[in-house]
């Protein structure tokens, strides 16, 4: 069933000639929620509401797809083809920061000014999974979460290890990590769309500042997680206490609470 999203306020945010619709809900410090392909599905919206219930203002841009629509194979294919050829996302670039990251930084800056707090958080999923890392160039980003980051696309090891950051931006991210800003990453171990090589590279570059959560999806795993499981916080979330995906969800919410807590 589609989600009307009628409990969210809808606005439009424009920066440097680029505009996207944005859905907002909640109070407290801002968390930018970037949907996976095919877009803001009912399960993405449900995750956003969990973030709101945890005490934050969700700011959820419409980067592609039909907001609130149930995922459908044909629609998903159309969206991914369009996203892959979009210059905003630079889906195949290995040493270049996605241009949309500049717009997202501006959105985060605006949200911080509106919502207050020590800074902002962000979570990207799949296609948008690495964008929170590009947003970390800005000092307002205090809690970046990379859920199954899948860009850049490519079968070569160079692509699988790429963080989709320009060298200068990577240097800035490493500088902020050295200053104490942590990055939380989530993936299933069998996920070929979000390769383990990328998490290995994050550990190499960021050291202890990278918190990598890798959920066992190997054959015969004790939780019965399918080998092709991909979406940790949405489509493949099993919302039961103790299940590793629920533990990961709780870890994300705790991460936001810890990093974005408003001082007394």
Would you summarize the structure shown here?
The protein has 264 residues and is an alpha/beta fold.
Describe this structure in words.
- The chain is of the alpha/beta class.
- It has a single domain, classed as Alpha/Beta hydrolase fold, catalytic domain (Rossmann fold).
- It has helices at 42-53, 73-85, 100-115, 131-135, 157-161, 167-178, 196-206, 244-260, and strands spanning 9-15, 18-26, 30-34, 57-61, 120-125, 141-147, 183-188, 210-215.
- The chain has an 8-stranded mixed beta sheet, with helices on both faces.
- The termini are far apart.
Number of domains: 1
Numbering strands along the chain, what is their spatial order in the largest sheet? Answer: 1-2-4-3-5-6-7-8
Beta-strand percentage range: 15-25%
The first-level CATH class name: Alpha Beta
Provide the structure class.
Answer: alpha/beta
Give the mean pLDDT. Answer: 93
The name of the CATH superfamily reads: Alpha/Beta hydrolase fold, catalytic domain
CATH topology: Rossmann fold
Globally, the shape reads: globular
Major pleated sheet:
8 strands, mixed
Helix fraction?
A: 25-40%
Q: Oligomerization state of this entry?
A: single chain
Number of β-strand runs: 8
Q: Provide the low-confidence segments as ranges.
A: none
Number of helices: 8
